[in-house]
Design goal:
Layout: H1 18-21, H2 32-70, H3 76-108, H4 111-117, H5 122-135, H6 137-152, H7 162-183, H8 187-206, H9 214-221, H10 224-234, H11 242-271
Length: about 270
């Protein structure tokens, strides 16, 4: 066996290349909007089959409430509140009730660990799930709105305002629903909070405000879905006050930003535990 002195070896063979010794650089962080789109598509495909029956229940419930209130209201102003409130109720059912249950069960089952391993920002997870659930409310809200307008003899000319009411009211309510599911210590409590929120949207949004006591009106003003109801109800008039409509939609947008930020912070806190 021959031994070759180290001095006769090429100098390049004894050294490690600088590129190999350097620490491997990390890839660029995932951007928000591509991550949001990916989470949205995944949530939409996952929940499409499971949530359609529940969406049918939400639509049937809202239509039934409109039919029931047909024999109670006796003025066009009250009819506007009933139609607008029953339409937004579909959004409240999905955004508050179902989304709080989803995040509550996800936290209890350890499903947040799966999302924590994905290279996506926490805001993309919350916003993607909220957007996917809000998308399921569009058909039911349109059906309820058209049925209510025909039932109460209201015009259909400004039905396009729902293109702004659904996403803005849905953002505000989805943020609250996600926050309830992520902050509740048990999934049963998350379900309870979601159902209480939906009941509040039902009682305070569908019933005409003129027939409520003053203290109940104050509670109604604290519910973000109220402003979506008011924005839609104002468009039924012969000369809508569009400044007031924009102000109501602005309140929904502001509450949506705050509630989704709270839900994102709650997600970060729950994911690291």
């Amino acid at each position: 066996m021959s031994v070759v002195p180290a001095e006769v070896l090429p100098s390049g063979g004894r050294t490690v290349p600088e590129t190999a010794r350097a620490a491997a650089e990390l890839g660029p962080p995932a951007r928000l909007w591509p991550s949001l789109a990916a989470v949205y598509r995944a949530q939409l495909s996952r929940a499409r089959v499971a949530r359609i029956p529940l969406l049918f229940v939400a639509t049937f419930q809202s239509v039934g409430i409109a039919v029931m209130m047909r024999g109670v209201v006796d003025s066009s102003g009250e009819a506007r509140s009933v139609v607008a409130g029953s339409s937004v109720l579909v959004v409240a059912y999905v955004a508050l009730n179902l989304l709080s249950q989803y995040f509550g069960q996800l936290r209890a089952s350890g499903g947040l660990d799966h999302y924590a391993t994905l290279p996506v920002p926490p805001a993309a997870v919350v916003l993607g799930a909220a957007a996917a659930y809000a998308s399921f409310t569009v058909p039911g809200t349109l059906v309820t709105a058209v049925f209510g307008c025909v039932l109460f003899g209201l015009p259909l000319s400004n039905l396009w305002i729902l293109a702004a009411v659904i996403p803005l009211a849905g953002a505000a309510l989805s943020g609250l629903g996600a926050a309830c599911g992520l902050l509740a210590p048990r999934p049963e409590l998350a379900t309870l909070l979601g159902q209480l929120g939906m009941s509040a949207a039902l009682l305070l949004g569908v019933l005409p405000a003129d027939r409520m006591p003053e203290i109940v009106r104050l509670a109604r003003d604290l519910l973000p879905s109220t402003y979506g109801v008011e924005a839609y109800a104002r468009t039924f008039g012969a000369h809508p006050d569009w400044a007031a409509v924009l102000a109501d939609l602005g309140v929904c947008a502001g509450v949506g930003v705050i509630s989704l930020a709270v839900a994102t912070r709650a997600y970060r806190r729950a994911a690291v535990r």
